[in-house]
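agent> Task received from the user: take the single chain below, predict its 3D structure, and emit structure tokens. No templates, no multimer pairing.
agent> Plan: (1) validate residues, (2) run structure prediction, (3) serialize to tokens, (4) report one or two observations.
agent> Step 1 OK, no nonstandard residues flagged.
tool_call: predict_structure(input=
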Amino acid sequence: MRLFLLLWLLIDSASAGIAEAKQPYPFSVTVERIGNGQNLIARNSGPAPVSVRLTLSGTDNVVASQPLPVHAVVRPNSEMVLLQIRPADPARSLRFSSQSAYNLGNFRAEHDPHALYRLPFADGGSFVISQAADGPLTTHSAADSEYAVDFTLPENTPIVAARDGTVIETESANRYGGRDRVLAQMANYVRILHADETVATYAHLAPDGVTVAPGQRVAAGTLIGYSGATGYTSGPHLHFVVQKPLPTAAGFAMRSLPLHFYVGNPPYVFEPRTRQRVTADYSAPGTPPPLVNEKRAIQAR
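)
tool_result: status=success, residues=301
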């Protein structure tokens, strides 16, 4: 059944003219000869800081300018010499191969403890949190989603930025969603970089449901897209998470971070909890969001 579903998705996507592969983020590591040595240079032509890990293997007659592996952050629209190597014996040639891995974001970022997030949907919207860190956790069991928040809401609900930042990556070409894990990488999304260089992801957006572009600055409350049910999901909802990359033995893995929302003016600040009904009201004084007992509050993940 899974194979049939995958073939159907590929064939139908091709017929709809959306089978083109997403363009990779404009980041590369290249080797350039400098005298009798080599420089390994990272080039970042995009709007996000990039965390990169570089190592060498198969080395012969090599002296490196610093210990390996190299971990570095390459600033947006810049380049950096990650490593310089030279022959230990100048009379002999050197030999090596390089391996690099990278993630968008700054692995040295520190989440601002005073940062507050408005609700990520338009003013007047009132929806239930179907999954948060207080549990029960059904799909948020890994480190990259431990503190993620799911809001159950109808498709095509206006989604807004929860915090000021810069759009660094978007995807809107995906058309399908469901409970088959073959769809796990087929969610539409917007990713926004904050001032503290943490990154927020707004996922499961509608087909063609993104209204912003990489490099665009957005203020909290700015429309960034429309909710949907693309990717691995049991129904329409918004998956919202704030993350930073952390080094691993092979490269980097994203780690989710705890956060606080606020409502009202003056604001009421709160940690998201499962089954809270939260209302985007920023004109009246903020009050604690109530808990609800509706069964449907925990259906969409």
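agent> Step 4: summary for the user.
The chain has two domains: 27-104, 109-298.
agent> Done.
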